[in-house]
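Limitations

Structures in this collection are predictions, not experimental determinations, and the ligand pose is part of the prediction. Treat each record accordingly. The example that follows, with iron/sulfur cluster as the small molecule, is included so readers can see exactly what is and is not provided: the inputs are given verbatim, and the output is the predicted complex.
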Amino acid sequence: MAETLTATNGEVALTAKDFATDQEIRWCPGCGDYSILKQVHTILPQLGLKQEDIVFISGIGCSSRFPYYTETFGMHSIHGRATAVASGLKAARPELSVWIVTGDGDGLSIGGNHTIHLLRRNFDVNILLFNNEIYGLTKGQYSPTSPENKVAKSTPFGSIDHPFNPIALALGADATFVARSMDRDPAHLQNMLLRSYKHAGSSFLEIYQNCNIFNDMAFESYTEKSTKKDEALFMVQGQPLVFGANNEKGIKLDGFKPVIVNLEEGASKDDLWIHDEHDMVKANIISRFFDHVDVEGHLPRPFGVFYQTSRPTYEAMMAEQINEVIKAKGEGKLDKLIAGGETWVIE
Amino acid sequence: MALETTTHDLEEAVIKFAGDSGDGMQLTGTQFTTNSALFGNDLGTFPDFPAEIRAPIGTVAGVSGFQLHFGSKEIFTPGDICDVLVVMNSAALKSNIRNIKKGGIIIANTAGFDAKNLKLANMTSNALEDDSLSNYTVIKIDVTRMTREALTDIQLGMKEKDRCKNMFVLGFLYWMFNREMDNTIKFLNDKFGKKPEVLEANLRVLKAGYSYGDTTEQFTTRYKVEKAVMPAGTYRSIMGNQATALGLVAASKKSGLPLFLGSYPITPASDILHDLAKYKSFRVKTFQAEDEIAAITSAIGAAFGGSLAVTTTSGPGMALKTEALGLATVLEIPLVIINVQRGGPSTGLPTKTEQADLFQAYYGRNGECPIPIVAAQSPSDCFNAVYEACRISVQHMIPVILLTDGYIANGAEPWRFPKESELEEIKIEFAKPMAEGEKFMPYARDEKLSRPWAIPGTKGLEHRIGGLEKQNITGNISYEPENHEFMVKLREEKVERIANYIPEQKIDSGPAKGKLLVLGWGGTFGAIKAAVKDLNEEGFDIAHAHLRHMRPFPKNLGEILNNYDKVLIPEINNGQLVKIIRDKYFIDAMAYNKIQGLPFFKSELMDKIREILK
Ligand code: SF4
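Predicted complex:
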């Protein structure tokens, strides 16, 4: 459920147009990045923030061009390090709204280390991880999220790498907000962006993004009309997990094992798994709905919020420690600090 | 009754305390140091830690040492070789025997020379019993037994009693050098006030050590090192890393910028992180990052947000930071990178010193990537050096590398510290908000060629920066061939122009023109200073200049170099500054190098200089 926020800064309300820059956009025509940019520009005016209080930080890759196209403060940093740059900025300036734009190569391969550490620390930032399961900017090598056997430029005989499951990885790193959306479902994506923003703590939003040049249709089962209803499972808080053309299929927990049941063939809605995004055990199970569509009896791919919990943010605790010390000892006196413990006088 | 003793006056003395890691040698050394400082000696110290944290007891690998050089004259180094060597066991003697003057005094704990200890030290015969130490005066004391005897009626376990034996040695040395013991008595009271038994034991053993000298007839010679003539003022003892941390806090205060440190633990730099983590009442934010790269990039984020941003590391960590150094260079944001150098390459010699990262600081990045470099020359000088690095960085909107090294980082000296009011203000101004309709130009420049520091939260200054090549003024991405060349030259010129804002090079000692100039940088200052001074007194026509600014060099450096027939550049590396100087000034500068993880000895430098002038 998307909540529309009104501008609270007392100025003329901003529109999506205000967030466009004068820079020519350099993504390939048809790239999924366009839709994500549009949805971000659509929700930004709803946040009630001033433009100057927003910062977008990216690493390297196609998605990381994002800051150039968004009229806020921004930094296009170096490969894999957007998360670390953002951590320093947020620690120094907790009042800013900090967004990280990264990709499957940037955020999970070269920058995987920083991603997991940011999540455990729980800085209040929003990570938008554009997952296209391929290296686009370097022209088509397999990525850490490419499925096994992927034939790409660097894997002419198919990839032998086992892919990351980004959602399970984020949960494993104790992220406090973990969600998935897709470029081709604007309403859902906007909703997830707003939820990410509203979460106080690190928000990890994986966005399936089509790279129509090097990995076209990687997510077609979830995005195309003909298959979406059967293959994409939209999680709604407090509601049973249902999918299919007429929502006739559901997920039931058989012990800890999720099974697909058919409501039209005698299964009862009362027996279905009720989605609870605050339940870590369930989040861990549903994050593992990750089998390939070709696998016999595979489970649908979930979209929405897998997990959300609240834990103090790093920057808040950092500020609190400082305030507590000052409360106990008073503001530091430089002369006293420099003099240290023992001094002597030479006449 | 004590025998008549004679007291010799010494101008200076070097004592080294060496023993097993568990023998408390660092504490003993620090106590004698504090005592000497309070008495009014000038001094320099250097700890010598084992490379392993918990090496096997009694082995050479486990020897921990502390060297103290004190005098009634000006002291510039912890001393070449020692006059008095205290060894608590065989391994300590074995690893320090090269380090003692002919005719020097060895004070040995005989309990550390039993069969077991000799074997642990891989010594085939007991040096205390054979004649291998005939060139030295050997004072044999069974410190362990004397300590236990002094504590017979004290209710403590044997292990705890034995732990007091360093106090016996300290007491004995206090006697030997005619010292009061007040500072140590006070120290023990503060430290063990809550454990009266332990306090009593330590005090008793300390006094036992003193009286042992007094009452044992075998010792007839005592020494006296008078007060030094030092500039009037209030002093404290300071180590290099401590001074660096203090300098950062001072720069934060005097610039009004909040201090942010992104750091990853690494020897020998970690103490800067430890110290700054304590200074929360100065609103210092320390972030122990997940790795060296996150340490510097988090600092870049903080700098973008308007902090005085710093990252601290040593060689291997510096290598990991290089890509981010390039980013900071293209972003043209302030950032202070501190490299406490150690022996390399790779993991190298983590606990030993070296000056071999100068090339890395100069050239170690992809692309044309000039970065200003400042070097610290002594423990207390780290304060001034880091303060200067911060000033250049924030006033010129540029990353600055500060080079210190393990030798000055862990060495200590007396410091006539400055008052806050004496420190020069570091003036900076953030870019001001823009009115509606005005367009902000993030890469517009002032006369220093520095661009505005436009921090998030400032109305109208929204802009995007990044690692792609920039167009001047607008800061837009540009792949234009001419623009790239222009920007490369501009970034170089921006560094060069810093020379207009730094002091001219001075001659530290010796004549303004002459036969030889010894040009140094960094932690070799003390040894060069001492060597040149002594040779000047011997009548040699030589001078010493020491560089603070390594890039750009002071404007008058070329002129100075030409005022001498010869230029000698001693370095603890395989010849780095010397190559840069030859390249820049086309002079036939001579190299003198030592690459042993050890500082120069004054005597080595004096020999080399004499040889050149022969
Ligand atoms: S290469 Fe792929 S991801 Fe990159 S811009 Fe083109 S379509 Fe988009």
